[in-house]
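Researcher: Go.
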Amino acid sequence: MKQLMDPPTNAPRSSLRAARSVALLLLLAAPTAYGGESIRTNWPQWRGPDRNSLIVSAAPWPKDLSNLNRRWRVELEQGYSGPIVWEDRVFVCETHAATDEIVRALDRATGREIWRASWKGSMSVPFFAKKNGDWIRATPACDGESLFVAGMRDVLVCLNIDTGSERWRVDFPAKLKTPVPSFGFVSSPLVIGEYVYVQAGGGFIKLNKKTGEIIWRALADGGGMSSAFSSPVAATIHGVPQLVVQMREKLAGVAPETGDVLWSQVVPSYRGMNILTPTVFADGVLTSSHKNKTFFYHIDKRDDVFQADEAWTTSGQGYMSSPVVIDQHAYLHLGNGRLCCLDLRTGQQTWRSKPFGEYWSMVAKRDRILALDERGELLLIEANSKEFHLLDSKEAADAESWAHLAVCGDWIFVRDLKGLSAFSWQ
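Model: Structure:
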C-alpha cells in the first residue's frame, strides 16, 4: 500500500480532518484479507472497545497462523503501555533514557511516524516491580479527538490526536498534595461521554475531558504505596449504570454521576496485589488475586440498596493477566503460567493447561482466543470449555512483550520492549 502523507501540522483543523478522512477512505478501499474485513475498526483503549478484550464480528479468525505476516515494524524504547488504534493511526508510548516519557502517532498502514510528544516524567519503582523496569505502564485512551495518557508520576496528559499538541495536563500530586504512586500511574484511563475516569491522585477521579477539571474524587486510598494496580470498567448491574473499580484491598461499584459508592467488597490478597481488571458477568464480578484465590461476587439489590456477597471461590490464583469470557466460561491465565477454564455459574474448573509464561494478554473472537505470551509467542487457542486445544503458535516479538495486544479487523499490533510490530492475515 502506498504511504499516505499527512498535511503539515500547522494546517487548519478542518484540513487535517479532511486529509485524515481521505486517508481512511483509501485504507477502506484497499484489498482486505479473510472474511472481507477491513482495518477500519478501532482499538481505542485498554483491552479494546468494550474494555473486555472481546471482538464482536461475524467472520471468525483462521484456524492457524500460517498466513499471519508482519507488515511493518518500528523500533522503540522500552515501555509496557499497550498500543491503541484510532482510524488511520496507532498510538504508542515509551520511556527515554530514564528521564522522559514519549508518545508517538504512527501511520496505521506503514508505521511511518506522524508526530511525537514528550515530557519529563520517569521514576524508579521498588521491590518486585524493579526487575521488570521503570518504564511507562498505563495504556492510553482515545475518543477520536483527544488522546489521554497516564504518565508514571501521576500526571494525566491530554493531547490533540491530529498534531500531538497538549490540550491540558493534571499533575495530581501537585494539585491534590498526594504522594506519587510508588509503582507509578499504572491504571489505564477510561473515557465515557464527556468525562475521563482514572485511578490516580490517591483515589478514583472523574475529570471533564475537555478541560481536565476534577469533578469528584472517591475511594480515597492515600496514594503512594497504596495506589491502584488495576483499571476501572463500566457496567450495568440490576439496571443501574456504574463503574466497577478494583482497589488494592477491595472491589467497589461507583455511581458515575456523583461518585457515590454503591457497594464494596474486601478481596483477600497478598500485600494488596489485586491487579486484574474486574470482569462483570451477569449480576456479578469475577476477580483473582496474587497468592490467594479466584473469587466471584454476586451483587444483589434490595430496596435500592446494593450488597456484594461471595458466590464462589476456587483455588486458581491469578496474577496480572485479565481473563476473557466466552459462553459463560472465563479463560484465566494463572500465576503459575497455566490457562484454566472456569464455569462462571458454578466456579468449577473444567481444565488447566500445561505451564506457559508469566503473563498473557488475550483477545477473544467467537470461539477462538489470541494470546500473547510475555516471551514473545503468539498463540491461537480454541475456546473449548471441555479441554485445552492449542490450534497454532508463532513467534511475534523481538523481545519480551508485557504490553497488551491490539486487534483491529485483520490486523494485530504487538508491542515488545524494543518496538512495535504490525501483522495481518493475507
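Model: The first strand starts at residue 54 and ends at 55.
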